[in-house]
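Batch 3, record 17
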Amino acid sequence: MTPTATGPGPGRRDRKKRQTRAALTEAALRLVAERGLAQVTVEEISEAVDVSPRTFFNYFSCKDDALVGDQAGHAARLVARLAAVPPEVPVLAALRTAFDEVIDEIRAEPELWCLRMDVVTRNPALLPRLLAGNTEAERAIVEVVAARVGVDPGHAYPALVTAVTGAVLRNAMTRWAAHPDRPDLPDLVDEAFAAIAAGLPEPDRP
Amino acid sequence: MTPTATGPGPGRRDRKKRQTRAALTEAALRLVAERGLAQVTVEEISEAVDVSPRTFFNYFSCKDDALVGDQAGHAARLVARLAAVPPEVPVLAALRTAFDEVIDEIRAEPELWCLRMDVVTRNPALLPRLLAGNTEAERAIVEVVAARVGVDPGHAYPALVTAVTGAVLRNAMTRWAAHPDRPDLPDLVDEAFAAIAAGLPEPDRP
DNA sequence: ATAAAAGATTGCAGATGCTGCAAGATCGCT
DNA sequence: AGCGATCTTGCAGCATCTGCAATCTTTTAT
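Prediction for the assembled complex:
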């Protein structure tokens, strides 16, 4: 049992921590998906992962946080990605590009994210903690958008674009998770982006 | 003290109830605006209105509900208004018209709504309970929109339009409450609607 | 006007969510 | 092995929220 493959990367401690965190999130999602948010206690979640309830709160500041996962991280990466897009590309296109970051992260764990979307749609109180509605993240995005467009962050445009594209992403995610035969998430996002870029024209009637 | 002006309308009981409810909401908003959500207890709110904490929970199912007010009612009226718009007028225009309902209700109590927007923006957890993000209300709107446009409620379009126009309204409300010299709310809403109808073109740089 | 019915307010007991603190276990490094 | 840093845990305690039963007020019927 010599530390063979530990290498320079994160040590055993970090690994266990990530593991515990992920396990708590997954257990929480499964239980809540089964029984509903109110019918699941922190004690049960901790029990399922075999840690004390107190430890749960060392990982998450509240029950909800275990369900939404690390949205702050996703948001930060998205903002970084957005800032990295060359300034000459239009905002909407830039945002669409930046979304690829998140999209990939979602596609990396499809089942988990389906569970999450299911739980979130059934418990709207969680919605603003999710990327699409997270206000803290939005503020950061608004600033980057404002800088890109060259207007004041207090101007209506950046906030509007941010909110609308957020709605676009949420729309795509929800439809993606709801559809039985999982369509490609990027396609859904593209569709929605095209619709808003065209001014939301009414679709042809069947 | 004869019952002179009681008439057929709501009796004293109903009046007192409305009064208490409104008082609780106002007290809650004021206290939270001053000290922050976590620094205000239900006991303090009840104290301020001189009712027992238990009574507070007879009016509101949780602390947050006292802050957001009767959003379900607003949403219901909005949906009714939307359904009443002649079918030949385009969805976006119809939604814009339906929003007048809410706008008027907001303009009827400007100070209260400013407080509320302040509190909500400072406590994003409240956001989805507000009209603009309320998921239960959204579902109803999505259905009416779907019917108007003549597509399935599961189609992407109704949900997208609903979410986007919700963002529009929220955007306008936030800007309205934030601005020191309160601009006309309908104007702000019109601006935002125009922007999305035009496909969110980037504004001219100053 | 008075009594019965209906509804509102309240206190109390209790479950759950969440936090601070201090002791004990574990991990990483030398 | 041993030391310091970090993680886990139990415990005490406050706050949110619910169910129940008693009490009081308004409304309605007589």
